[in-house]
Amino acid sequence: MTVLALDIGGTKFAAAAVTADGDVTARAEVPLSRAGSPDRALAQVVEQVTARVPADAIEGIGIGSAGPLDPRAGTVSPVNIPRWRDFPLTAAVGRMLPGRPVRLAGDAQCMALGEWWRGAFPEESEKPGAAAPEPSAEAAAGPGEEPRR
């Protein structure tokens, strides 16, 4: 399985074809300043990746974007891209690669999930959200409070 991962950033759009194992098989970046418009930057970054990975190999699309955004509606209104207010991003990308599921989330959420999945946490117990031991009553008490037992 290969997915197209898109990052809608403040100064550039980036895309990569990523396998289920996390291997990046193609990557592209398009600076907004050189593209002329955010719509053109989106088209260019998708075209650059699909030129190196056949479009029929891409089974799904995941988008991380600056906000505000509405994942259910598939719209974004990044504060740094005034032309994109309630822009239907998932629909626009879906038209470029029809017939594939497209999902949208906040860029910080995507980054945290990527770090959790493939990032800098070699031990399972170190991952954010991993079960942690309960603090002692003394550690849980606030300054000047008596420990609750």
SSE blueprint and pairings:
Blueprint: E1 2-8, E2 12-19, E3 24-31, H1 32-35, H2 38-50, E4 58-65, E5 69-70, E6 75-76, H3 89-96, E7 102-106, H4 107-118, H5 137-140
Parallel strand pairs: 1-4, 4-7
Antiparallel strand pairs: 1-2, 2-3, 5-6
Summarize it:
The chain has 149 residues and is of the alpha/beta class. The chain contains five helices and seven strands.
Count the DSSP helices.
Answer: 5
Strand content: 25-35%
Using the alpha-carbon principal axes, give the shape.
Answer: globular
How many angstroms does the end-to-end distance come to? 51 Å
Mean pLDDT: 83
Strand order of the largest sheet: 3-2-1-4-7
Task: Characterize the biggest β-sheet.
Answer: 5 strands, mixed
- Low-pLDDT parts are 130-142
Radius of gyration equals: 20 Å
Task: Specify the helix fraction band.
Answer: 25-40%
- Helix/strand class: alpha/beta
Summarize the helix and strand pattern as letters: EEEHHEEEHEHH
| Total number of strands | 7
What does this structure look like?
The chain has 149 residues and is of the alpha/beta class. The chain has helices at residues 32-35, 38-50, 89-96, 107-118, 137-140; strands at residues 2-8, 12-19, 24-31, 58-65, 69-70, 75-76, 102-106. It is built from five helices and seven strands. The chain has a five-stranded mixed sheet. Strands 5-6 form a two-stranded antiparallel sheet. Strand 2 (12-19) and strand 3 (24-31) form a beta hairpin.
